[in-house]
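Schema walk-through. Below, the input block comes first and the output block second. Nothing else is stored per chain. Lengths vary across the set, and this one has 167 residues.
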Amino acid sequence: MAVLKKINLAKAFAALDEAWSPRIGGDINDFQLKLVKLDGAFHWHHHEEEDELFLVVRGTLRMKLRDENGGDIVLGPGEYIVVPHGVEHCPVAEPTCEVVLFERNTTLNTGNVENERTIREPGVFERPLMTGDPVETWAAGYRAARQFNASLFDGVRHAANTSSLGS
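--- output ---
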């Protein structure tokens, strides 16, 4: 059985050293929760198939949008925006901010643009972030959750196969 722990966002964001380099905070079915520090402007891009949720935890984020999409939207702590797939956008931190992203696990951070900021495989936290046992790391919790989900689905699959035999 998996042991669940709460995550301290302040510790998680303190562990981020590099701006515009998202880290996976957890998997939720086919989606990922990512944490990222933003500093200055990114670049204009869009995602062909994926929607993105940007939740500002600290700082100010200006989501630049084209006029046909309503123009710029400024977000402060506790505010979020969902950018639908196909909508061109340009995140700008004013001056820096901390953001939680919620998006499909197939989402490339730079969307339709490939450049020096493209990150094909975001990292997973390796430093201790969980409250409670300081020896336990985020990566260990992440691996344990994945193993638990795999064994849970194997058990459900086995139960479905054995119950259909009795019919």
